[in-house]
Amino acid sequence: MASISAAVKASSAASFAHKVRILSAHSPPTLPWGIRFPHRFSTLTPSLAAVVVSQNDLAAVAAPAQQQQKQRSGRRARSGRVRAVATPARAPRSPASTGSVKGAMTMTEKILARASERASLEPGENVWVDVDVLMTHDVCGPGTIGIFKKEFGEDAKVWDREKVVIIPDHYIFTSDERANRNVDILRDFCMEQNIKYFYDIKDLSNFKANPDYKGVCHVALAQEGHCRPGEVLLGTDSHTCNAGAFGQFATGIGNTDAGFVMGTGKALLKIIGEISVSGATYKSMEFVGSTVDSLNMEERMTLCNMVIEAGGKNGVVPADQTTFNYLEGKTSVEFEPVYSDAQARFVSDYRFDVSKLEPVVAKPHSPDNRALARECKDVKIDRVYIGSCTGGKTEDFFAAAKVFLASGKKVKVPTFLVPATQKVWMDIYSIPVPGSGGKTCSQIFEEAGCDTPASPSCGACLGGPRDTYARMNEPMVCVSTTNRNFPGRMGHKEGQIYLASPYTAAASALTGYVTDPRDFLM
């Protein structure tokens, strides 16, 4: 589904006058979905901001009250109350628990109002918000720790040892001494601070020997129950917006901001009201509609993950029963989802009929360099890469396996598989693919001639040291399910990266050219 969000970026970064194309292979072919933009948000220090979108069917701006009641039903609230399961439908929906409000608010406005203990928020205001979770990893963690110690003192303690989540994931399986030292710094700090959620790795020769190690931070955050509706989650990685799939405010921040949050648990936001010509820049995107409702959590994560490529600071999907089912057994922390009011103000409201959309790719060297996959059928490729927080989840590998299974052929170019986390790796080897006669993804990949699934990590998505698995050390053409294709992103600065969905990536591996997956699936 990487190409879905890449296509969204293509239109949003310009002027939203162009039609947004979205790969509909994961979605029912006749269902509509939409995006809406409210006010912009930004931090007064480096770059913290937010964006919101709302619910629609083809002509509706807000979801029916009955659906909203269904979404809220049966969940534990922060106050300890249990929401009614069979409350009669009401219209319009009343605001969530943010006190008496001056006017209708969007979901993101409600989350930030509650986090700042305000009844409402208005454009132009500066607000301090309480942060529920701060995440950092091996690339930015050492810098964040350094700033924290410089500003708060060598003996300072983090504001809450259970709200700081530290996940090594980027440059892990390498002999590079500097990369390994970064993980050592994280380990020393977590021992000093008694950080509860440090997903450490010590034995690099066998990731399975490290039960605490998870893999890619954005997927691990979700799998380990750190993503919860209505909360504020900040991380030192631009794709932290991935967590917006859970109906929360989630965005990436710089090391300076993170160092301050680490010491205080607070972040300063400025709410910006004006509209720019930069599409979703500093805005919040809220994805709604019957197609969005039909997506599972991993598909919703892909959608929100790519919001940053549109310049957005946050992408959200309203929490519903799919969300609650996913979180069952993953967290004991009480949470209370919020939803946009029917009368909430949005900068823009966009509606799309997915039955008219086709598979797309993002050509080099930008996620907004969009083209239909079938228009690139003459582009010869050297390799295929399936992995990352965007395209390395269980559903992504299932999608690729379905294409290989339908073709019954072997790949014509090297095809690298990098599961996002240990759980995804286990799923590849243990869960039968529907319609395969009991075969797992790993069996189908082996029959197709793919490379053996690698140790879970960010892998070559960010290039990394030269010995990083599947890194492009020579100028090559690669079809990848990752999220960025800037020069040098996956290694060699002259490499060419075509961003695509797992379906398109698998189809391209079978032909050696950029290929529309419908050639095999239809």
Automatic annotation (TrEMBL):
Q: Which residues form the Aconitase/3-isopropylmalate dehydratase large subunit alpha/beta/alpha domain?
A: 110-266, 269-371, 375-512
Q: What residue spans carry the region label Disordered?
A: 63-102
Q: Where is the composition biased (Basic residues)?
A: 72-81
| Composition skew (Low complexity), residue ranges | 82-98
Q: Which residues form a coiled coil?
A: none
Q: Name one GO biological process term.
A: L-leucine biosynthetic process
Quote the PANTHER family the UniProt record gives: HOMOACONITASE, MITOCHONDRIAL, HOMOACONITASE, MITOCHONDRIAL-RELATED
- Report what the protein is called: Aconitase/3-isopropylmalate dehydratase large subunit alpha/beta/alpha domain-containing protein
Q: What is the lineage of its organism?
A: Eukaryota, Viridiplantae, Streptophyta, Embryophyta, Tracheophyta
